[in-house]
């Protein structure tokens, strides 16, 4: 998309890549490239030419692919990544988002091989996914960017990632998660003291409030966003990225208009929707299209159908030109409904077909009802040319009855499904609570029994040995047989004490209570390695402090169960255990080179109590588990457990 001569690949300040085409500068670099040897400098210059050239797309691609060829020959990873990026960006300029995704993904894959990956590659790929409406792959991309941002503690980019995560969850109608990430975004904006970021974040969370029908709350934060934008525009010398202020202001006006529309206040909805269009000169094209589509929808609700078609169609044309699927889908839906209200059923059906080809897989009942009605009206209009008026009326009545019957069946089935899901959720909740109580009770009882054995029985054995040892001075009057029995008794007491400590440790390791999880695991792994002959490598990161006792016990039991399974069944020679504590979760990875097993078959046949215990404990900790195993190829178990510092 283009904005004042710039190519903008992302909406978020601080994360966009802006390229100004400059033919004169490109020509000067071409002189340097001509006849130059194939080295890394030539790769860099060819990439610069591709960014700067104003020639046809094929010329940009010519220099980019030439850079890629040389970079691959030189194994110049950074050059390969940047060549892929410029090729993908060229496809994005041509609105060929499928090929844009292909090359931008390759750019990121190559960049992540470098010690310091280029974080500016991610927004361009995300932008392409959003044009395509491909949210699963967008989620995978933003997760990679978030991991990189957290590793470098880049607070501005972490804020950007929270914004994108909120947007993806919002588009999937998971408003609880969307609100959580948008609140993270708002908090980051405040911590960074970034007024424009805060204005943008308030606009994003307003969408959640609107969908949750918290209209007053949505309008309140939107006016706050506008107030911030006005302050920036009045004092531009105090702020960075002031060019974003008009865009955020216009977007907030549009959102206010949309919120008023949904609340039923059509007069205010029209006022703010048109005001957004008057302020839209600084906005990217897809925002402009959304403004016109929304204003047209307001006119439709006000029954001004001529104006409705004028505005919606303008937004529709803009959306088609830029291949924006969601705006095109929305405009097609509104045009279908408007033409149906005008009894122009040919046009209504045309846009209805276009809408159904673009709509998301999840469509609510209200939308289904409207579209089914339009299709029924189209069928009626077609038959009007073939049959008499009386037959037409009868068909309308029959069609309406069938439609009503189908609608009632859909509503009933929806109600049954909702109730079934409700009962299932309640059952799962009760089962989880029961398991939590059992596990907690078992762990506390293990701890109590271990302590009692150690303190009570251990003290008795120590006292018995002390009493028996008091006869040491009398040994000289013992016969040889008595001396032998005396020494055997002392040895038995020592053996009983050792066995007692082993039993107590197996029930609940003292090291776990006193020194913590890492020390207990090191002790456990040392003993198992010594007795089993298996080479076990264990590393732990960022566990300087203790975590909650229940979590320590559960993680210890999970690792113990995994090691027991390896010793009993895997016939492995090497085992690698890695434990990492991140700010939000704990990661556990256990990998062995044993015989492996068919994980799906084990689950289907419900075999393996140990595996069942592991899955139950992970579920108890609200974690996730991924088991990668197949016969003859070893086993890798990855567990992530949520954790708050």
CATH class of one domain: Alpha Beta
Low-confidence stretches: 1-20, 361-382
The CATH architecture of one domain comes to 2-Layer Sandwich
Total of helices:
25
Q: What does the overall shape look like?
A: extended
Kindly provide the radius of gyration, computed on alpha-carbon positions and rounded to a whole number of angstroms.
34 Å
The CATH superfamily of one domain is Histidine kinase-like ATPase, C-terminal domain
Order the strands across the largest sheet as they lie in space. Answer: 4-5-6-8-7
**Mean pLDDT figure:** 78
Overall number of strands? 8
- CATH topology type of one domain: Heat Shock Protein 90
- Which sheet architecture does the biggest sheet show? 5 strands, mixed
Given helix and strand content, the structural type is alpha+beta
Task: Note the beta-strand portion.
Answer: 5-15%
N-end to C-end Cα span = 42 Å
Estimate percent helicity. over 70%
Report on the structure:
- By secondary structure, the protein is of the alpha+beta class.
- Among the domains are: 441-507; 512-642, 2-Layer Sandwich (Heat Shock Protein 90), CATH 3.30.565.
- The chain has 25 helices and eight strands.
- It has helices at 23-33, 40-52, 57-74, 77-93, 97-111, 121-132, 135-152, 155-171, 175-191, 195-211, 215-234, 244-263, 266-278, 285-301, 305-321, 325-341, 345-358, 365-383, 389-469, 480-507, 510-515, 517-532, 549-570, 599-605, 609-620, and strands at 2-3, 6-8, 18-20, 535-541, 574-581, 585-592, 624-629, 635-642.
- It has a five-stranded mixed sheet, with helices on one face. Strands 1-2-3 form a three-stranded antiparallel sheet, with no helix packed on it.
- Strand 7 (624-629) and strand 8 (635-642) form a beta hairpin.
- Helix 2 runs antiparallel to helix 3, helix 8 runs antiparallel to helix 9 (175-191) and helix 14 (285-301) packs parallel to helix 16.
- It is extended and about 125 Å long.
- It starts with a strand and ends with a strand.
């Amino acid at each position: 998309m283009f904005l004042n001569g710039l190519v903008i690949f992302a909406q978020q300040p601080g994360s966009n890549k802006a390229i100004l085409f400059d033919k004169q500068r490109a020509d000067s670099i071409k002189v340097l490239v001509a006849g130059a040897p194939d080295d890394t400098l030539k790769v860099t210059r060819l990439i610069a030419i591709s960014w700067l050239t104003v020639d046809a797309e094929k010329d940009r691609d010519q220099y980019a692919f030439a850079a890629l060829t040389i970079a691959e020959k030189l194994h110049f990873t950074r050059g390969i990544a940047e060549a892929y990026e410029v090729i993908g960006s060229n496809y994005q300029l041509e609105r060929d988002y499928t090929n844009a995704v292909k090359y931008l993904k390759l750019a990121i894959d190559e960049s992540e091989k470098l010690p310091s990956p280029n974080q500016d590659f991610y927004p361009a790929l995300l932008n392409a996914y959003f044009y395509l409406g491909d949210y699963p792959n967008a989620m995978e991309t933003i997760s990679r960017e978030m991991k990189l941002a957290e590793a470098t503690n880049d607070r501005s980019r972490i804020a950007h990632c929270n914004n994108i995560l909120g947007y993806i969850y919002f588009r999937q109608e998971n408003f609880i998660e969307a609100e959580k990430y948008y609140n993270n975004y708002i908090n980051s904006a405040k911590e960074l003291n970034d007024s424009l970021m805060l204005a943008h974040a308030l606009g994003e969370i307003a969408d959640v409030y609107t969908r949750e029908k918290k209209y007053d709350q949505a309008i309140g934060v939107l006016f706050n966003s506008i107030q911030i934008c006005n302050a920036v525009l009045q004092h531009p010398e105090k702020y960075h990225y002031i060019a974003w202020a008009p865009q955020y202001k216009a977007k907030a006006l549009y959102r206010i208009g949309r919120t008023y529309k949904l609340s039923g206040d059509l007069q205010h909805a029209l006022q703010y929707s048109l005001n957004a269009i008057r302020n839209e000169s600084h906005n990217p094209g897809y925002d402009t299209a959304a403004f016109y589509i929304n204003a047209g929808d307001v006119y439709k609700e006000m029954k001004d159908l001529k104006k409705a078609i004028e505005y919606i169609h303008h937004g529709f044309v803009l959306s088609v030109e830029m291949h924006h699927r969601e705006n095109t889908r929305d405009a097609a839906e509104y045009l279908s409904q408007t033409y149906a209200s005008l009894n122009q059923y040919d046009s209504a059906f045309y846009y209805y077909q276009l809408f159904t080809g673009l709509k998301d897989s999840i469509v609510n009942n209200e939308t289904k009802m409207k579209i089914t009605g339009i299709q029924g009206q189209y069928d009626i209009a077609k038959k009007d040319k073939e049959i008499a008026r009386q037959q037409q009326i009868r068909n309308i009545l029959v069609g309406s009855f069938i439609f009503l019957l189908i609608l009632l069946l859909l509503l009933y089935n929806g109600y049954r499904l909702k109730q079934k899901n409700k009962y299932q959720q309640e059952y799962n909740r009760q089962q989880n609570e029961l398991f939590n109580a059992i596990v907690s009770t078992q762990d506390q009882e293990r701890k109590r029994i271990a302590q009692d054995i150690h303190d009570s029985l251990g003290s008795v054995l120590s006292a018995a040995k002390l009493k028996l040892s008091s006869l040491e001075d009398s040994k000289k009057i013992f016969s040889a047989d008595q001396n032998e029995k005396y020494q055997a008794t002392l040895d038995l007491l020592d053996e009983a004490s050792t066995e007692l400590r082993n039993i107590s440790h197996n029930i609940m390791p003292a090291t776990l209570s006193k020194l913590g999880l890492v020390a207990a695991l090191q002790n456990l792994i040392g003993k198992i390695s010594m007795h089993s002959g298996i080479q076990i490598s264990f590393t732990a990161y960022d566990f300087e402090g203790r975590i909650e006792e229940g979590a320590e016990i559960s993680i210890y039991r999970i690792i113990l169960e995994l090691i027991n399974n390896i010793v009993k069944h895997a016939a492995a020679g090497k085992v690698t255990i890695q434990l990492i504590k991140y700010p939000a979760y704990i990661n556990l990875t256990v990998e062995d080179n044993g015989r492996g097993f068919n994980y799906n078959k084990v689950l289907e046949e419900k075999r393996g109590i140990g595996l069942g215990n592991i899955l139950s404990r992970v579920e108890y900790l609200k974690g996730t588990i991924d088991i990668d195993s197949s016969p003859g190829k070893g086993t890798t178990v990855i567990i992530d457990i949520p954790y708050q510092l």
